[in-house]
Design a protein that fits this description.
Elements lengths: L2 H17 L3 H8 L6 H16 L1 H11 L9 H16 L5 H15 L2 H16 L1 H4 L7 H8 L4 H11 L1 H11 L5 E5 L6 H10 L4 E3 L6 E4 L9 H4 L3 E3 L2 H10 L5 E5 L6 H9 L4 E7 L2 H14 L4 E5 L13 E7 L14 H4 L2 H18 L3 E11 L8 H10 L3 E3 L20 E3 L1 H4 L4 E8 L2
Helix pairs in contact: 1-2, 1-3, 1-5, 3-5, 4-5, 4-7, 5-6, 5-7, 6-7, 9-10, 9-11, 10-11, 14-15, 18-19
Bound molecules: S-adenosylmethionine (SAM).
The site of S-adenosylmethionine has 19 residues, from α15 and β6.
Length: 447
């Protein structure tokens, strides 16, 4: 494992924490194609490990640093976090190597004083490992927040909503790496054929539990370099997100509007289920994201999608009473995606949930008139916050008595594992379902 890998991880962490970059985008930006797999793995482990355990690591640093955390320079802090992560969480790296490599990075990015400081803190952490990992369990809120590194406001909300045990398990699962799921493009291949092809290339492949088109890959190394990917035989998508198309279950020759559709994961799935027959209008507010939908549709061979830059809050009289199906896959807090994007824990603010719920409700209200009688409205998010999910749907149903929830459990495999079906909607959790945290409600317009 090279010195370069750690330096690259350091620069990625700075990019995420100081420039607000998304982890997956920052990683792709910094990892150059010539890098060997071992170094690439180390970079990913360091970046995700530090992001996932940030609060816990800071708690450990506070026990061995003579300087107050607030006074440590952000770059030096990041190097310390990487060092402590390697010392505490990575058995395969000897502490001495972790300390020396971090000191080498400080030599390049810090000054003489900081070299001594980092060396001292990391040696201290290594000597007192057993002691620094302990977190006081007296106050359960503080304990969960530090031990599983989630902001206190988030843990508090979840304890109030779901209880302490549930919250602890959820936070623990949020720190586990999510599996890579792929959706088979049944327009171009079959699940069996793709499964066999992937297995013949030494990929370990399993069926998803809930979504028909889902395969789970245990060792997804460079899976998007495969010819099958380039030919559009599959797309990377979480199993939960595949359930939107599956639950919509659109008929061929329908007219569908996907209001918030970039990068097109659900639009292309809907097109696949419709056997490329009918019409899908895929909109998004951001011009630059439209290209992503077009690229995905083209690669997957879905040719019934028409993309448009369009604000979901703006009225479009031309669609009045026209739609068979309308999907509002709303912009949301993304708190169901923490396994994949741990930086969400640190970038999201509690006030965002209120602001987003206002936007989500307004979008629903704005599109309801586009749906024709007996047409379907699907509302989905990748969060576990009730205020962005069932509370939005209930408010909408209260204000619009011509809509009602319709049962969806018959459309999902292993339905008994999803207790919210009894209440008429789907809510998935990472620690229970091993999927992203995800919400789906299906409503019919009766008049
Ligand atoms: C959850 S993502 C959609 C994911 C997409 N449905 C898929 O499956 O690939 C939400 C999308 O809503 C878009 N968005 C945010 N505000 C919007 C608005 N007012 N009108 C339309 N789209 C909006 C964002 O750009 C983002 O792409």
């Amino acid at each position: 494992m090279s010195h370069d890998a750690r330096e690259i991880a350091f620069n990625i962490l700075l990019d995420i924490n100081q420039n607000g970059a998304f982890s997956n985008i920052a990683i792709n930006r910094h990892i150059k194609s010539g890098l060997n797999p071992q170094d690439e793995n180390l970079i990913r482990e360091l970046v995700y490990g530090v992001l996932e355990n940030k609060l816990y690591i800071d708690h450990m640093i506070s026990k061995v640093s003579k300087i107050k955390l607030k006074k440590i320079h952000p770059s030096i802090f990041e190097i310390l976090r990487m060092g402590v992560y390697q010392i505490v969480f990575m058995d395969k790296i000897p502490d001495r190597a972790a300390v020396n490599e971090c000191v080498n990075i400080v030599k390049k990015y810090g000054h003489k004083g900081t070299v001594g400081f980092v060396n001292g803190v990391l040696r201290n952490a290594s000597r007192n490992k057993e002691e620094i990992i302990v977190v006081d369990e007296k106050n359960k809120l503080d304990y969960i927040s530090i031990k599983y590194s989630h902001p206190k406001w988030m843990v508090k909300r979840w304890i109030e909503e779901f209880g302490e045990d549930f919250t602890e398990k959820l936070c623990q699962a949020n720190n586990h790496k999510a599996e890579i799921n792929i959706r088979v493009n049944t327009i171009k291949t079959t699940k069996d054929i793709l499964k066999k092809t992937l297995m013949s290339r030494d990929y370990v492949v399993r069926d998803g539990l809930y979504a028909k088109d889902c395969l789970i890959i245990d060792n997804p190394y460079r899976i998007t370099d495969l010819e099958e990917f380039k030919l559009g035989h599959f797309i990377i998508q979480d199993e939960s997100s595949m359930l939107v198309g599956q639950i919509m279950n659109p008929r061929e020759e329908s007219l569908v509007l996907d209001v918030c559709s970039a990068p097109g994961g659900k639009s292309t799935h809907i097109g696949q289920i419709m056997n490329n027959k009918g019409s899908i209008i895929s909109r998004d507010i951001y011009d630059h994201k439209i290209k992503l939908i077009n690229d995905n549709a083209q690669r997957l061979g879905i040719n019934i999608i028409k993309t448009e830059v369009f604000d979901g809050l703006k009225k479009d009289d031309s669609l009045y009473n026209k739609l068979d199906y309308c999907l509002v896959d709303a912009p949301c807090s993304g708190l169901g995606l923490i396994r994949r994007k741990p930086e969400i824990k640190w970038n999201r603010k509690e006030e965002d949930i209120k602001d987003l719920s206002i936007l989500q409700y307004k979008i629903l209200e704005n599109v309801k008139d586009y749906i024709k009688k007996d047409g379907i409205l699907i509302y989905s998010t990748c969060t576990i916050e009730k205020d962005e999910n069932i509370n939005i749907v209930n408010k909408f149903l209260k204000e619009n008595d011509n809509f009602r929830l319709i049962s969806i459990d018959n459309l999902v495999e292993n339905k008994d594992e999803i207790p919210t079906f009894k209440k008429g909607y789907l809510q998935l959790f990472p620690h229970i379902h091993n999927t992203d945290g995800f919400f789906i409600a299906k409503m019919i317009k009766e008049r």
